[in-house]
Every structure is written in structure tokens, then in C-alpha cells.
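**Protein fold record**
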Amino acid sequence: VQLQASGGGLVQAGGSLRLSCAASGRTLSSDVMAWFRQAPGKERELVATINWGGGNKFYANFVEGRFTMSRDSPRKKVSLQMNSLKPEDTAVYYCAARRTIATTYGFWGQGTQVTVSS
């Protein structure tokens, strides 16, 4: 599975950005797709997950209802709509995928920078 992330940029606090991740290769409807982020000097953290088939979603607590992850299964694309952005959301955001039987994410896209100015 190959993943291509896009959509990062610079936005003022309170603004919105939409990240996209296009998957190619042998994806399965049971695969779990995820967005992670890593801020400078901090560990990478999970932001949100969704599976291709059922749309089951998970959000980290810090999302606080501001982000929405969605999928377009026929087009093998997932998105992360980020609203009410805060300066602490500044990070490199990564798209990732794993098989349901896997305990770790084995497929990663390149990161896309999100910078939120105060």
C-alpha cells in the first residue's frame, strides 16, 4: 500500500484545513486508516482512525470535536477536516494504514506540514 498525503499549509488560529490521503496498491476493506502528527521535540501521536469498510472512527481526546475524518472508499481516499485550529495543532501530519490483524501501522505516507499561527 502506498499513501500520498496532501493539504497542509499555514493558517491562523481558528481557521480550517483539510488534509487528504490517497491510497494505492492492495488495500483491504478491513484496513484501518489513520492520521498521526508529530510536533517539534514531541513524540508522534495518533489523531484519528477510520476503516475503509464500516466507517468506524476514533478520535484522540485533544481533537475535542474539531476534526472529522472521512473516507471515500471507491477512490481509496481519506480526509481529515480540521476546524477551529489552535497553535498547538502545529505539526507534521502523517497518513498511515494497517491491516486489522496488525498491531502496528506498516504503511506510511510522507508528512504534510500544518502550521497554525496565533
